[in-house]
Predict the structure.
Amino acid sequence: MRAKNIFFLIFSVFVLLGTAWNFYTWQFGKTLLINAGGFGISPPRLDFNVHPGEAASQSVKILRSGPADRAAINYRLKNSDFQDWFSFFPAEQAFFQKDKYQADVQVILNVPANTAPGLYRQTAYFIFSSEEQKKGVGINLGARLDIMVSVEKPALAVSGNLRAWTLSDKSFIQEYQGEFIRETGSGIMYYVDGIAGYLIKIRDQEDLNDLIRLRALGVKNSILEKIPPASEIPNTPPPAVSDLALARTLAGKFLLETEQQGQTWFVEPLTFRRHYLPPTEKALITIWNLCSPVSQEKIYQALGRNIY
C-alpha cells in the first residue's frame, strides 16, 4: 500500500509539471520560438599567428536555427589586458535580419609593435537580443569564441622556404629529437631538429622536400637492410631490428638509397622502423600519421615564450 502511495505521488508531480510546461508554451510560445531555436558560432575558435606590429583578420558566422525577428548581436571581450588589440566589423554591433539564419562578423587583430613573443588568449562573447526583448519578453542568448594569438619572432630562414625557431628547452629536444610533432588544436606540424636545436615548421610537401634535401643521408643497401621497413599489413609486426646501435644512430633521419632507385626513407625514432617517402604528397600523409601530438603550451615553453 505504501509503495502505491509513493508511485501515485511521483505520477502526480510529473502530471503537474507537464501541465505547467504546456501552459508556459502556450502562453509564451513566441519566446520559446526565439530562445529554444538555438544560437551558435562557427568556427568556435580562431588561431592567429603573427609577428609584433602585424595585423590580421578572420571571419566567423553567428548562427540561429529558426526564423525570427530582426535581432542585434553585441560583442564583449573577456580579457581586458588585450582588449585594445581587437575590433569587429560591423563595428558596434551586427544584426540578424528578419527571418535570416546567420550573420557574418569579422574579427580584426592589431598587435602592438612592442609585444613580447608568446601565446595570448582572449575570449569574445556575442550576445543576442531580439526585438521581443524590448517588450520585456525573452532572455539573453550568447555564443563564445575562443581566440588564440601566437606572437612569434621572425623565423630563421633554414633552407629554401623552410622556417625554423631555436629551441631553448634541452629536455624538449631530448624527448622529441628527430620526431615530427603536431600542435594540438591548430594542427601545425613541426620537425624537431636535434642537430641544430631547431623547431622546423612543415606547412606542405614543398617544405618536407626542402627538409629532406637538407638532412638526407646517402646510404648503401647493406646499411638500409639493417633497418627493417614498417609493416604495410595491419596488425602484422615488422621484422626485428638486427642492429639496434645503428638504428638508434639513424633514428629521426632521412635515408637516401644510392645504389638502385634512389628511394627516400624516414627512420621513425620510436620504433626504429623505416617508412618509405614517395616523391608525391603521400609522403606528407605518411609523416602526418607519424606525428606525436604536443600541446601548444608545451611547444611555447620549449621556445622560451610566455603564455598569457
